Structure prediction request, 559 residues.
Amino acid sequence: MGYVTEDQLALQCLYRWEKSRRDQVFLTQPVAGGSVREWTWGQAADEVRRVAAYLKAQEWEPGTRVAILSRNCAWWMLADLAIWMAGYVTVPVYPSLKAQSVRNILEHSGAKACFLGATDLLETSMAGIPPGEAAVRFPTAAVQDGLRWDAVVAATPPLSGTPVREMDELATIIYTSGTTGVPKGVMHSFSNLAYNAGALVKLIGLTEKERFISYLPLAHIVERAGLECTAVLLGCRVFFAEGVETFIADLKRARPTIFLSVPRLLLKIQQGVFAKIPRERLETLLRIPILNRPVKARILRQLGLSTVQHAASGAAYLPPEILLWYRKLGLNLSEGYGMTETLITHLPAPGSLRPGYVGAALPGVETKLGEHDELLIRSPMNMMGYYRAPEATLAMFTEDGYIRTGDVARIEADGQLKIIGRVKEQFKTSKGKYVSPAPIENQFMAHPMVEACCLMGLGMPHPFAVVLLSEESRQRGADPVERAAVEAALMDLLNEINRELDPHERVSFVAAVYGPWTIGNDAMTPTLKIKRGVLEKRYHAHIDEWSRQHRPVVWEARN
Prediction:
């Protein structure tokens, strides 16, 4: 694929579909009462033009930052396009952030206004809006006081013409989800986003007939570049999910052909299947030729995934065992790789899947290994830099223009990429040996009874694993009668993993904790990756007591 052409940019695509697909449905949004609201391309473009005219009437200077704080919804994408049409820059904010984090992003970006919708932490998120900042509320917002989207649309004539943005203009500032440290504002241009969408379309062979369901945070690059920008480029249909309780029903309504997900959600779905059909029984059914196909079809149909042609997992490591389980069911699942600073750079081409690998680089993406086998990436999608952070920007790039990803990796002769762990997450034991936690954590998380894992052990003779068990295993562990069986399974898993590790890496014990580890209590990022520093601090006071027990499995004391 060559470089981006102007007709691939988001606004140009909108104008094209506004004319050629005016009456074709673009967006489908669940609303109260179980019904839906739909926008054709013509209707969507009309609302975008009206909101863009309202924004432009504020007479802010070109490039002014405008934020969106909301769960995914049709108005999120319409607002994004309106911000761009008005000549401004979008600052997406995760709807799971607390007030101070919201305030930090809005103040650092200098946002002049914010679109507000439903959030995960209703009052606390809204409290992060600086006093006096202009706000427009989506119909999904919990509080409807103030200026409402529908009122803006009703009162404002549509912006005329076809205003466009230059390829290299700043389109968005995406703040990193932040497993460690303070989030940084990653700047991406219109050409960056368009290039990523075009590369994915060509690699997978996507068409205008695709159907997407949008539920992963649009503040993250997987959903923004992989779904929103791809759907706008193709001119295809996007459905939205209302919430966790209605997710399966939303999937069944959408009948998606493309399904993007993250490892923790895929694990949750798998555990839900096992709750209805025990793992051993399901394995038996799948081994019976006459039952194999109808059983798989029924499970995918009940999950709302029977129409999916291409599924992909990103944002964190996906254990090969989980990937293969889904593929055994008939879901065409693969694992990709990207980061906020590079967008999506790796995905297996059809027929090239290799479990444990994230595929080869997309066309135009160059990779190599630096010191400590750190993955370095150079491509037309590399960020423009960190907003208002020239020193951090300089440190992120090599002299020849490669981004330092911070990931330890292996690149095979055919270009397939395997992520090993994080350079900065390695820690030294008291014996002077370095341990890379991610590969060991991944082995624990490959077991269905382990929901999440954090390996610790800085300054100790050997590392130990703090594991958050699946809900079923946590309940069994709380029962004195059942706990022995859970401990036995954990001991078997521990011994199995240790057999494959070097002596200095071997895990001394497993600490089973009750959690929860959630976005709301700051144990996980909005993309469901553990925050190592937060968890290490949280369990630091328990370490001595756990160590004194000299047992392979210990339990967090319940309050």
